[in-house]
Amino acid sequence: MRFRGKIIDIGCIQHFTRVVTTISKLVKSCTLRITTDTLYFILSERMVTGGTGIWCQVSQNHFFDEFNLDGVSAEANEIYLEVNPDLMVRALRTAQNAKSVKIKLTKKHMPCLTLEVELPTLAAHSRLVTHDVPVNVIPRRLWDEFEEPELPDFDVTLFMPCVKILRNVVDRMKNLSNFLTISANNSGEMNFGVSTDIATIKTHFKDVGHPNWRETSDRDPKEFADARIDIRKLAQFLVGQQLSSVKIICNLVHEHLAHFFIVHDDVSLQYSLPVVNS
Amino acid sequence: MSLSTQESDENAQYVLYARLDNAKTMANILKAVHFKDTAIIFASENGLKVTVEDCKCVQANAFLQSSLFQEFVIKEEQVTFKINLTVLLECLNIFGASSIPGATTALKMCHEGYGTPLTLLLEENGVLTDCSLKTLEPDETLDFNFLSTNVVNKIITKSECLKAAFSELDLSSDILEILMSPDEPYFRLSTFGNAGSIHSEFPKESDLVESFQCNKTQANRYKISLLKPSVKALMQSTRVSVRTDNRGFLSMQYMIKTEDGQVCFVEFFCCPDEELENDEYS
C-alpha cells in the first residue's frame, strides 16, 4: 500500500488548502478516500450521532503534478484513511508560499500522512519542512460504510441567497434558538426562521435563483418544503466554507433533509443535514 | 421604501405603530441600557421609555422620543409592556451589527395592545425579516423620587472626562466613591481596592466641565457592580450630567448623538451603598 503525490503550482496549493480548511471547519475527523483519479473527504454520521453527511470530491489531476497510488490490492486500488483535517490544515498553512508540497503515506511509529513542504530561500538550497499527520488506515471490510450517498428526489432546489446577508441572519438567530427552519418553494421564495417561547423570527428572501440542473418535478411551484435543522451546523457551513460565495445550491426534501451543494470544475462539496423534529 | 406602501389602512388595528428608517439608531440606544435580559417599555405620545432595573438599586431609562421616528402613532394614553431586551436587540441587528455603508435597515414596529406580541418588520436591500416578540406583564418599576429641587450637587461635563476614569476602574474595589464639593478637590472619583486606593480628580475650571453647581461637600459610595452597566451608555455619549440629591442618590444623564444627528438621553439612577459614618477617607 503506497501513496505519494506532489503539488507544485502555488495556486493549486492554496486551493487545496481552502478545500481542506472548509472540511476542517465542518468536522473534527473524517475519512479520506484516495483513488487513482480522485480524493474524497467523507463523513457519514449515523442518525443516532446526528446524521450529518459530507461528500467532498477533489479531482486529483487538477491539483497534483505527480500522483502515485498502490492501493490495498490490484483490484481494489484505493486507500481509506481516517484523518483529522485540522491537522492537515496546520501543516498546509506553512505551505502558502511553498515551491512544492509532497503528500505521502508513511509508516513512522504509526501510519502518517507526511507533508513535505519545500520553502524558497534566497540561497541555492531550499528549506524543507516536514509534518507528520497521524492517520488510521480503515480496513477493507469497513469500506462500504463510505459509499456515495444516493441523492433523493428533492422537493425544492434553489440557489442560496446572498451568503453575506444570510451569514449575519443565521448568526443572530443562532443566539436565540438551536434549530432553524428553512422553507422554500420552486418559485424562488426562501424563508429562514426560528421560533422560541419568547419570539418568532423569520427572514424572507424573494426571487432566489434556480439552477437548471435537474428536471423540475410536477410539484406545485408555490408549495413550500420545510426543513428544521441544527442551526449551529448551518452556521458552521456558512462561515467556514471557503469555496464559493455565490453559487451554493440548496435542496430540500420536505420534513426530511436539507442538502447543500457546491460545484466547481475540480471540487464538489455536498453537505447534508437531516431534519430534527420538534 | 417598500415598507411604507400599504400602511395607511393596515395600521388601523394597532395601538402602537412606529416607523424608523434606520433601525440601528434604536439598537444603539437600547444597547446602552442592556444590562439585564428584560426591559419594560412605556409608550406614550412623547415616544418610548425603556426601563431596565437591577437589584432594586439601579434603574436605567432610555428615551426614544417620538421625533426620532419617521412615523409614530399611539392610540392610547400609555401602553406598557415588558419585553426580552436581548431578543429585541438581536432582532434589530438581524442584518448585522456593523454598519455597511449604503445599507440601512428600515424598521416598522407594531403592537396591537395588551397581551399581544410586539411585531417588528425589518427590511434591508429587499430582504424582509418579520419578528414577533411576546410581551409580558410589566413589573412595577422603582420610583427613586429624585426631585430636581432636592439636588445638592450637579456637574455637566463632556464625556471624555469620565470615559477614561470609568474604563480604568479598579474592579477589585467593591465601591466607587463620588465626591462633589464647592471647594477643592471639587469632583473626585475614588476606589479602594486590594492594590491601594485610586483617586481621580477633575478640576472645575477644565474646558471639559461645562457646568459646575455644587452647594455642599458630599461624598457618597456606590457599588461598582451597579454602576458598571452605565459604562456602555457613557461610551456612546457626548455629554454627561452627574447629580446627587440630599439623600445621596445618584443620577447620571447621558446625551447620545444618533447617526442621523438627533439627540437622545439615557439616564441612570443608583442608590448609595451606605451612609458614610465619618471622614476617614476624605
UniProtKB/TrEMBL annotation, chain A:
Swiss-Prot/TrEMBL GO biological process terms: double-strand break repair via homologous recombination; meiotic DNA integrity checkpoint signaling; mitotic DNA replication checkpoint signaling; mitotic intra-S DNA damage checkpoint signaling; nucleotide-excision repair; telomere maintenance
Cellular component terms per the entry's GO annotation: checkpoint clamp complex; nucleolus; site of double-strand break
Nucleus in keyword set: yes
Pfam family, one: Hus1
Transmembrane segments annotated in the record for this chain: none
Family: Belongs to the HUS1 family.
Keywords of this entry: Nucleus
Name this protein carries in UniProt: Checkpoint protein
Subcellular location(s) of the protein: Nucleus
Nucleus among keywords: yes
Organism from which the protein derives: Capitella teleta (Polychaete worm)
Chief location bin: nucleus
TrEMBL record, chain B:
One GO location term (cellular component): checkpoint clamp complex
PANTHER family named among the record's database cross-references: CELL CYCLE CHECKPOINT PROTEIN RAD1
Localization annotation: Nucleus
Protein family: Belongs to the rad1 family.
Physiological role: Component of the 9-1-1 cell-cycle checkpoint response complex that plays a major role in DNA repair. The 9-1-1 complex is recruited to DNA lesion upon damage by the RAD17-replication factor C (RFC) clamp loader complex. Acts then as a sliding clamp platform on DNA for several proteins involved in long-patch base excision repair (LP-BER).
Subunit description: Component of the toroidal 9-1-1 (RAD9-RAD1-HUS1) complex, composed of RAD9A, RAD1 and HUS1. The 9-1-1 complex associates with LIG1, POLB, FEN1, RAD17, HDAC1, RPA1 and RPA2. The 9-1-1 complex associates with the RAD17-RFC complex. RAD1 interacts with POLB, FEN1, HUS1, HUS1B, RAD9A and RAD9B. Interacts with DNAJC7. Interacts with RHNO1; interaction is direct.
GO biological process: DNA damage checkpoint signaling; DNA repair
Superkingdom assignment: Eukaryota
Keyword vocabulary terms for this entry: DNA damage, DNA repair, Nucleus
Record-given protein name: Cell cycle checkpoint protein RAD1
Keyword DNA damage: yes
One matching Pfam family: Rad1
UniProt key word Transmembrane helix: no
Provenance organism: Capitella teleta (Polychaete worm)
